[in-house]
C-alpha cells in the first residue's frame, strides 16, 4: 500500500489541520461517485486510492493510532537498513541483533494493551463491585448474628440448641 504520509502527500511532522486538508482534497478528487461514468480501470484505481487515503486519514488523525504507526514504521525501516548493512540479507546485524523483532510487540506490550482495554476494565470493576457486595453482605450477617446472640459464638449457640433438644427428649 505504501506509507500513509506519502498517500496523503504529507511529511511525518504534518499537523492535524494539514492532514484534514490533504484528505479533503484527495476525497473530492478520488471519490467513487465522481468516477461513476469513467472506465472500469479508472474507477477501480480511484476507488483503491480513495480507500488508501481513508485508511491513512483514520490512522493519522487519531493521536494514539498515529503514534503506534510512527513507531512501527520507524522501527521496521531501521531494522531493514541495519540488517542489510552487514547481515548478508538474513535479518542479522552484528551491531544490533534485536531490531529485527522490534516491530513485533512483546508479550508484556500485548498484556498491557489487553489490561488497558475498556472491556477489561469494565469487567474488573463489575467483579470488584460484586466481591465488595459479598463482603458487605457477609459483614451484615455477622452483625445480625451478634445482635441476636450477644456474647455467644456460633459454636456456643449450637451447643445450647443441642442441650435444649436433649432436654426436650428427656421429658
How does this model look, in words?
The chain has 171 residues and is mainly alpha-helical. 72% of the residues lie in helices and 0% in strands. The chain is built from seven helices and no strands. Helix 2 packs antiparallel against helix 3 (40-61) and helix 3 crosses helix 4 (63-86). The longest helix has 31 residues, at 118-148. The radius of gyration is 34 Å and the shape is rod-shaped. The relative contact order is 0.06.
Strand-helix topology:
Elements lengths: L3 H5 L7 H15 L9 H22 L1 H24 L20 H9 L2 H31 L5 H17 L1
Query: What is the β-strand count?
Result: 0
The termini sit apart by: 95 Å
Poorly predicted regions are 81-102
The largest pleated sheet is described as: none
Kindly name the structural category: mainly alpha
Question: What does the overall shape look like?
Answer: rod-shaped
Radius of gyration (CA) equals 34 Å
Strand portion: under 5%
Q: Helix tally?
A: 7
Mean residue pLDDT? 77
Helicity level, as a percent range? over 70%
What's the helix-strand series? HHHHHHH
Amino acid at each position: 500500500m505504501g506509507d500513509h504520509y506519502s498517500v496523503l502527500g504529507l511529511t511525518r511532522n504534518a499537523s492535524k489541520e494539514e492532514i484534514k486538508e490533504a484528505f479533503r482534497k484527495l476525497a473530492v478528487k478520488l471519490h467513487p461517485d465522481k468516477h461513476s461514468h469513467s472506465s472500469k480501470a479508472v474507477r477501480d484505481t480511484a476507488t483503491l486510492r480513495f480507500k488508501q487515503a481513508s485508511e491513512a486519514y483514520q490512522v493519522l488523525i487519531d493521536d494514539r493510532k498515529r503514534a503506534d504507526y510512527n513507531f512501527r514504521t520507524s522501527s521496521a525501516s531501521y531494522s531493514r537498513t541495519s540488517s542489510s548493512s552487514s547481515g548478508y540479507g538474513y535479518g542479522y546485524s552484528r551491531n544490533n541483533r534485536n531490531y529485527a523483532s522490534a516491530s513485533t510487540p512483546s508479550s508484556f506490550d500485548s498484556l498491557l494493551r489487553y489490561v488497558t482495554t475498556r472491556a477489561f476494565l469494565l469487567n474488573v470493576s463489575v467483579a470488584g463491585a460484586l466481591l465488595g457486595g459479598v463482603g458487605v453482605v457477609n459483614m451484615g450477617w455477622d452483625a445480625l448474628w451478634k445482635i441476636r446472640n450477644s456474647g455467644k459464638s456460633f459454636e456456643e449457640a449450637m451447643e445450647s440448641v443441642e442441650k435444649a433438644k436433649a432436654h426436650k427428649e428427656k421429658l
